[in-house]
C-alpha cells in the first residue's frame, strides 16, 4: 500500500528567551571529523492536544539552557571550527500521513514509509552538529 506524507516547509524554532551570544571553542575530540554527527529524529503522536505546538514550545524552552544547540558551527580560522552561539534556533518539520501508526508498524523496521519522505526538506544552511562533549555536558 502507498502512504502519503504531507509536510509543510521547515521552520526555525528559536529559544523562548534570550541566550548568551558567545563563541565556544571545540575540544580536540570535537574537532575530529569522525566525531561529527547530525541528529535527525522522528517523534510520533497519535493523540493529545496539539502535540506539534507543544513539541515546538518544549524545544523553544529547552534551547535556553542548551543554547549552543541553537547556534551554528563556524570556522573563523580555517580548520578550527567553533560553536557560534547565535540563538538562530533548530529546524523543525511537522508532518501528517494518511495512515495510522499501526498501519506502518510504528515506523519500526522494515520501514513502510521511506525515511526521506518524513525527514528531508531542510533548507541548505550551515547546520549545527551535535558533538560528543555536549552530550556529556562538558
Automatic annotation (TrEMBL):
As given in the record, the signal peptide range reads none
> Keyword ATP-binding: yes or no?
no
Q: Which UniProt keywords apply?
A: Transferase
Give a Pfam family name.
Transferase
Q: InterPro entries from the entry?
A: CAT-like_dom_sf, Plant_acyltransferase
Name the coiled-coil region(s). none
The Gene Ontology terms for molecular function here are: transferase activity
Concerning its family, UniProt says: Belongs to the plant acyltransferase family.
Protein name stated in the entry: Acyl transferase 1
Q: Which species does the entry assign this protein to?
A: Rhynchospora pubera
Transferase among keywords: yes
- Superkingdom in the source lineage: Eukaryota
